[in-house]
Amino acid sequence: MRVKTEEKRKCILEAAKAVFLERGFLGASMAEVSARAGGSKQTLYSYFASKDDLFVATMLEKGAQIIDPVFSTFESEDDLRPALSRFGRVFLAFVSSEEVLAFRRMIIAEGARSNLGKLFFENGPRRGWTRMTARFEWFMEQGQMRRVDPWQAAMHFQALCESGPFYRLLEGVLPELTPEMVDAAVDAAVDVFMRAYGLETAAT
Known about the structure:
By secondary structure, the protein is mainly α. The chain has 2 domains: 1-48, Arc Repressor Mutant, subunit A; 51-197, Tetracycline Repressor, domain 2 (Orthogonal Bundle). It has 11 helices and no strands. The chain starts with 5 loop residues before the first helix and ends in a 7-residue tail after the last helix.
């Protein structure tokens, strides 16, 4: 009986990340991933039931390293505006990184013909944004936000952060987002969000 280990799982995910980035989702194969990870396809399938599952796990591993701690920090913040500003900067820098952009483009390309996008969203982003909605409810109770649907507010904040230069980057119009561009985009996003959802009693 084979014993699953976290070390082997991480080895598989590293191999999978390299294969997906080199081949794209359609061009990647479980056989190549297992070969690079130094094991058999049988071992690979004992960890991940399908290529879709492996792809999603690879993306979530990346997010767990960077974004999960940022959501945790946001949950401990007491002042809405600086909390959004700090979160937005890390979030936008993360989603505009070369690797994450490549994976997101794969998800968009596959979304219309597979369950990949839904599988990823339900197991990753939805969980993170749900954590933000819980903190938004706390900010509402503290009188820093208007009483609104917290999920809608979280989705609006994501959209505001990703508006403008990020979409030009996603489309390939821009080669990268500089730190200055990230700062400007997040400052604008926070300002619009606070005008829409913030209360005058909120700290500035």
